[in-house]
Amino acid sequence: MKKLTFVLFCMLIVIPTIVSAHTELTSSNPESGQVVTADLQEIVLNFGGKIESLSKMTLQKDGVEVPFAGVEPLDKQMTGTLSEPLENGEYVIQWNIVGEDGHIIEGEIPFSVQKQEVVEQTPEINEPTVIEEPIKEESNKIDNNESLFDWKIVFIPAVIMVIFAIGIILVLRKNKK
Questions:
Q1: C-alpha angle 53/58/63, rounded to 5°?
Q2: Which of the two ends of the chain, N or C, has the fewest CB atoms closer than 10 A to its terminal CB?
Q3: Residue range 49-72: average pLDDT?
Q4: CATH classification number, 24-148, choose in 3.40.1090.10, 3.40.50.150, 2.60.40.1220, 3.30.360.10
């Protein structure tokens, strides 16, 4: 009886740990909430584990998809090459990966582009030239880099294990009588 209890206890500890070990986003360029002030050639997402070739990402500005020249998932990194520089505005990178364990994980990274506009100066001697700089606004966006943890993955196996353990205990008690 003690051995059975020990085995069940170990399974309750080990199974949720194995199930919750999913690949997660470790870093990105641009980062969540970042204000990009220079031309951006590519978007790079780095993950904690290997990602499969079915992984993808999209870039949206005001709900409209901005096309990539190419998206390449390779080992622990996914790189999206832009076909042209991004215009000023608010963007959201939406990524969807298939981890090495086969689980689908998704998330999004909001960022903004605020490049300074180049004002052409004409050679006027008497009039001063005024260069306008864009005002930086603070954004109160929630960091959505991490996927929400799915408690069903842990809860369902735990409930099954508890029901299984109760069943075994009842059968063993019945056999002793």
A1: 160
A2: C
A3: 91
A4: 2.60.40.1220
